[in-house]
Amino acid sequence: VFLKSDFNTVLTNAYRLPDGYVQPATTLWTTRALIRRTAELEAQLGKPDRNMCHMTNTAIAPILAFARVDLDWEEHVGEAPFQDRFSRAFILTESVGRQFGNVPVVLSDMHGSDPKKIAWALRTETGVVLTFELKKWPSWAKAGTYRNNFARLIRFGYGTPRTRTWDYWRRNYPMRV
Length: 177
Fold this sequence. Notes:
The protein is an alpha/beta fold. It is built from 6 helices and 8 strands. Helix 5 runs parallel beside helix 6. The model has no long low-confidence stretch (mean pLDDT 87).
């Protein structure tokens, strides 16, 4: 899902200005309609709700409101630690998916020539992803650190009624360092 300028003055709301230039339309509402139609079709066909929007580091509520999964974190590839790639404010505003009711999935690719830096990036990725209850795109290479630790949380009871989770950024967080 990517918003773009549309210069088609026949099929969109784009229009020609008096100076001859075209004022483009945006694809916001047509993209929203597409995602909504897809969600409705899945429901009508009795299919699982797997409507996924690859948002490329944007959180557009009218579109994501009809998605089930949003894919984020395409930017900032490399070997930098993950707590340095995206701020807490960015993650809470865009990535967690709660404001849209979505399952948040991240594409967290790593490139570099220093194996120690890549190993550290993998560890910090796992920490950030699990802390914010994000899901890692499963088909990407080097997901073992995340998978192993997520499996540990599942065995502990994560995701079940017997285990309560706390967001460290909320008031009344019950722990202190």
